[in-house]
Write a structure and sequence with these properties.
The complex is a heterotrimer. By secondary structure, chain B is an all-alpha fold. Helix content of chain B is about 65%, strand content about 0%. Chain C starts with a helix and ends with a helix. The chains are: A mainly alpha, B mainly alpha, C mainly alpha.
Amino acid sequence: MSVELGHYLAVSGIVFGIGVAVALSKRNAIAVLMGVELMLNAVNLTLLSFSRFSTAFGPDDEPLTGHVFVVFVLTVAAAEAAVALAMAVLVYRRRETVDLDRINLLRW
Amino acid sequence: MNEQSVGKIRAGEIPSMPPAQGLPATPMARQIIEHGTLRTKMDATPTPRKVMGAIGLLVFLAVNAAIAYVVIDGRLDGRWYDIRDLGVGVGELREWLSDEGAPAWVEYWATGIIGGVGILSVLGGWLLIGSWVERRVIALFQIRRGPNRHGPFGLLQPLADAIKLIQKEVLVPRGADRFLYFLPPVLIFIPAMLGWGPVPWAKNMAYVDINVGLLYTVAISSLAVIAVFIAGWSSNNHYALLGAMRTVAMMICYEIPVSLALLTVVLLTGSLQLSEIVAWQASHNVWLIFIVPFAAFTYLFSSTAEINRTPNDIAEAESEIVAGFHTEYSGMKAGLFLAVEMGNALLIGALMATFFMGGYTLFGLEEWVPGYLILLGKTTAMYLVFVWLRATLPRFRLDQLMGYAWKFLIPLAILQVFVVAIEASIFARWDVPGVVSLTLFAVVNLAITAALVRGWAQAIGYSPKGGAGAMPLLATVTGGLKAAERMRAAG
Amino acid sequence: MESTGIVVAFWVLSALTIGAGLAVFLSRNLVHAIMFLILAFLGMAGLFVTLSADFIAVAQVLIYAGAISVLLVFAVMLTPLASRDNANSLYVVPGVLAGLALAAIVGFVAFEADWAALSGAAADQRASGATIEVIGDLLIGRYVLAFEIASILLLFALLGAIVLVHERTEPAVEVEPGAAGGELARESREPA
């Protein structure tokens, strides 16, 4: 019994699917953001597992490039969370709701 | 000399008057006038007892060193694997296990469990003694006696407190979120225990000497806020929620100065591994607190904010919000919160000693005294500093504390990182002897820090009392003269 | 990966992560959902450790469990009148179907593809923990442009968040025309 690349990819796919389901079907904007964070985490797991397991590299390739990509994903996730939550708070100030079903006007 | 003028006597300006009529009636004031200062308990202690105390301390140290020498059997030359190898006994257990043909994981887990239980029991005892020490020392500061009823010198007071807390009923407030309400007293222990992982107690004697130990300590300490938030939110109490949100806000503010302060350590030592940081300080015969004093101060201050020690304990400010996030907890649950608070202070003391004060080394003394005793001493010294701060300083206001982080600590810490980066590159490239360059860095950093602290304080609007009252620079440039004048008028 | 500990850790951690993710979807309370999300983040950090990515694991704990979850908590607390019931919207059925389909596709690919061409013996050579020096070299070496862009992005996100949430308040003092700084105050007094 050993753990291979496929196991990690399967876990990553399941977590990504959960993230998609949360992001598509929740009503609260903050919950939608939580789904997006889960999806980003799953992508990070994929990148790291490829970086750990794969050996198909050229002579100039560095095996830890996947880690660098994850660093960038973390950066983008932090920026996205800050801006998205600021937008949620702004919407709440105008409409007193963060319910995505009720934020259906193009202007207000 | 009437009553009114006597009432105006201040510390440091005792009038040279005859100790005659009109003296105030309180014994404290009489002491101040007679002796120039308050007689503390130490002064009142008879000399034989002081000598006995000193001899007792020396005997304690000697016995400890002898035990360590016998138990470790001269293993201080770095052949210790890690703390799971506590002494020869565990080492022989490992050898016996491997001789009997047990698989590697049995050996690993057995010694690991022994080491873990060892650390936990040492910490538990330390917590008990620490609470007694804190109360006695604060009593010394406040010229009273402190706990002195249970056992000799009140040494059994922590046990009595624990028994009392265990006996009390655990109440659950109405409307509380029952599932989440029971979690935090347990959850909050996890970061307080995990934080001890990478701390090196002697050469090669860390529980997990991981490669990114410094980042690990920062990450672990940021987890405690989750437990605090759960405690505050699930209690269904406004005071608890206020305390929890204060903690969360503090965590956001003070995570950044902590990281910046530790970044200077990383820049100088070139490693994130705690044992490497200590080894760098030992090999250069210097403590980092001398080279980067502002970073050390930033780390100390921000850590007190993160762990709710008194100058910054606005999360459980008794005078404002009853007990903060653990208002609704009673019995041993509240006791666990208090214990974790003290354990966090010890942890921060150990980390401060490791990062900035040479860790388990003491300029060559670690060859003769076991390293864990040195680290224990340094941690206790830092803990006494925390107690001293608690007895001395009043509590900050919430906005003052936030403003202090954002307006003062973070800009200056960023500048400090720039300066230290330049120095580190100089240190790495030029072939200057370490003594010369490090001394130079220490002097330069101290000067820069002093200049920057003063300059930045004036830039954001502070004018020294009695000074000419220079215009607040930043307000003049950005906010307009009127605002600057108002700020100056307001002082 | 022959060590038994790694295998056990993988199964426990993946069960924890997936269970916590499902609990995020199923829980009836938004704050409970955030707590389960933190649990999922921590489980994911454990999975990163089993992949011998120590720096990324610690960064995950620091950024996700320490910072982003605190931001989420703050957002929930700053929207007090919004509902806290973590309810599903009208799109729950398509959403769950899309999630299931994605998970099924990725799982199918993961187990059906022949990864033997990729995974081999050489993978264990870099299983040592010293990743951080290499990551640092790559970040300020080959990927320095992306690194700089990322820092600019963070700066703009910071400014954007502040500008979005900043409440314009009336200036307390009236400003004489001609005084320095009058322009600034007048601008901020104009209605948004």
